[in-house]
Specification:
The chain has helices at 5-14, 43-54, 87-92, 99-110, 136-153, 163-170, 176-179, 199-204, 209-231; strands at 71-72, 78-82, 119-122, 157-161, 184-186, 191-196. With 232 residues, it is α/β, with parallel strands linked by helices. Helix 1 packs antiparallel against helix 4 (99-110) and helix 2 runs antiparallel to helix 5 (136-153). The chain binds uracil (URA).
C-alpha cells in the first residue's frame, strides 16, 4: 500500500521529506467516513460544559478570558490530548487554533483524519500565565473534567501530544523520548494511548517530525487493531 496523494501532501506540510524515504513512510491511512450531522448536545455534555465554564477550582480562572472546553465529535474514535490553552486558544475558546494547531491538523490529515472527526482537548481547560507548565494542583483540579470527557466519548484511541499530556495521562515522569514507540493504556479504561511530540516542539525542532510520523503510523496500527478486535 503506498501513500495517497493527500497523505503525501500533508506529510510535506508536516515537513517530512517524502522523496528519499518513501518506502519507509508507507502507511495505510485510517478511513472513517465524514458524517455531517446536525449536532445537538445532550444533557451530560451540556452539564459538563457549563461546569467547566464556571470552574474556579484553581487560580487559573483569574487570568483566563474563557475556558477552553475541547472541540470535535462527541463520538470520536480518536481523542487528541494536548497540554493547555495558549494565548490564541484563550481568545478563541478552542484548543489548538494557533500555529501548533495548524501543524496538528496536518498531522491528523496525514493519518486520513479531518479535525472535525476527532475530539481535541487539553490536560488544562484554562491558560497558564506566560505559557508556563501546569502546576500539579491545577492538573489535579482539572483532571475530573477530562476524565468525564473520556468517559462520555469512549474513544478507541488516545493520542497524547507532548510531555505534559503524556506524563499526566499515564502518571509517570519518564521523559517523552523514552515513552515513544510503545502502546499504553489510560487508567482503568483499557483505552490505548500512543504518545508523540507536541506540535509546538516540532515547530521548534523540525528534524523530530520524522519521529512524530513514526508515532502516528503506530497510532494508526493500534487504532486498526483495536477496531478489528472489537468486530471479531
Ligand atoms: N498547545 C496545547 O497543548 N494545547 C492547545 O490547545 C494549544 C497549544
Amino acid at each position: 500500500m503506498s501513500l495517497t496523494q493527500s497523505q503525501e501532501y500533508y506529510l510535506q506540510t508536516m515537513g517530512v521529506d517524502v522523496y528519499w524515504s518513501k518506502d519507509r513512510l508507507i502507511a495505510d491511512p485510517v478511513s472513517i467516513p465524514v458524517v455531517e450531522t446536525e449536532f445537538e448536545e445532550n444533557e451530560a455534555w451540556g452539564d459538563l460544559r457549563q461546569r467547566v465554564a464556571k470552574c474556579q477550582q484553581c487560580e487559573l480562572h483569574r487570568g483566563r478570558k474563557q475556558t477552553v472546553f475541547g472541540v470535535g465529535d462527541h463520538n470520536a474514535d480518536w481523542l487528541i490530548i494536548g497540554e493547555a490553552p495558549g494565548a490564541e486558544e484563550d481568545k478563541q475558546g478552542e484548543p489548538f487554533v494557533g500555529r501548533a494547531g495548524k501543524l496538528l491538523n496536518s498531522m491528523l490529515l496525514a493519518c486520513g483524519l479531518q479535525r472535525e472527526q476527532v475530539f481535541i482537548a487539553n490536560i488544562l481547560k484554562c491558560r497558564p500565565p506566560n505559557n508556563r507548565d501546569p502546576h500539579a494542583q491545577e492538573v489535579a483540579a482539572c483532571s475530573a473534567y477530562l476524565r468525564q470527557q473520556i468517559d462520555l466519548i469512549q474513544p478507541k484511541i488516545i493520542l497524547a501530544v507532548g510531555r505534559i499530556a503524556a506524563q499526566n495521562l499515564l502518571q509517570t515522569e519518564t521523559p517523552i523520548g523514552k515513552m515513544r514507540g510503545q502502546q499504553y493504556e489510560y487508567a482503568d479504561t483499557g483505552i490505548p494511548v500512543v504518545v508523540t511530540y507536541h506540535p509546538a516542539y516540532l515547530l521548534r525542532s523540525p528534524r523530530e517530525k520524522r519521529k512524530s510520523w513514526q508515532d502516528l503510523q503506530m497510532a494508526m496500527r493500534v487504532y486498526k487493531k483495536t477496531i478489528h478486535q472489537e468486530t471479531k
